[in-house]
Design goal:
Length: 219
């Protein structure tokens, strides 16, 4: 069970010290937004390169941007452990996943809450992780959408029946009160922004979330 704190909930003026508060995390989740794919703007490769240089844990980059074919490889080249782009924004998702893997990153594919995933079952091997969004992408601090859980469960069942070792990630509204539902539905990788950076002791929050995920995980 992996816990990936989202840097979106950190203090951007003190990124280095914020990263030091989550050295017990598995990865740091880095939300890149372009104000086109989502109605919010964060940062690009230059900032992510600095995060990469100072982070005590590997980077899990989540690209909420248009034209991922044009921009995603740069994040793999700067050393991100995983680069996840959105199915809704991609024109050639399999070709892009192959490029990311060739550079040495894990290839991730994200889907918004309303996006169906049945079309992915035959190409699961092309990806290292699937991100099922549990809020509409764009902002931290939103409420978890339980209606996304049947889709996650279907994906987890399908992955298991195919003998796949793909990671299943959830992102949005994950906290001590919602992580059990996501773990029961088959998630093994959990992004949490406010629940970690909003805690007095972020590493303690990470441990508590991980323990709850371990207790409730099915599949
Ligand atoms: C939302 C981002 C999330 C966000 C999660 O578009 O993809 O990673 O930071 O924040 P919380 O955990 O606060 O919902
Ligand atoms: Zn995210």
């Amino acid at each position: 069970m992996r816990i990936n704190p989202s840097i979106l909930a950190a203090d951007f003026a003190n990124v280095e010290s914020e990263l030091a508060r989550i050295d017990g995390a598995d990865f740091v989740h880095v939300d890149v937004m372009d104000n086109h794919f989502v109605p919010n703007l964060t940062f690009g490769p230059q900032m992510v390169g600095r995060i990469q240089a100072t982070s005590p844990v590997p980077l899990d980059v989540h690209l909420m941007i248009d034209e991922p074919e044009r921009w995603a490889p740069e994040y793999a080249e700067l050393g991100a452990a995983s680069v996840t782009f959105h199915l809704e924004a991609a024109t050639e998702p399999i070709a892009l996943a192959r490029r990311l893997r060739a550079i040495g990153a894990r290839a991730g594919l994200a889907v918004k809450p309303a996006t169906q995933i049945e079309g992915l079952f035959d190409v699961l091997d092309e990806f290292d992780q699937i991100l099922v969004m549990t809020v509409e992408p764009g902002f931290g601090g939103q409420s978890f959408m339980p209606e996304t859980m049947p889709k996650l469960r279907l994906l987890a069942d399908e992955a298991r029946s195919r003998g796949s070792s793909i990671w299943l990630q959830v992102d949005g509204g994950i906290s001590e009160s919602t992580i059990a539902q996501a773990a029961e539905a088959g998630a093994d990788t959990f992004v949490a922004g406010s629940a970690v950076f909003g805690a007095a002791d972020p590493d303690a929050a990470i441990s508590a979330l991980r323990a709850s995920a371990v207790r409730h995980h099915q599949h």
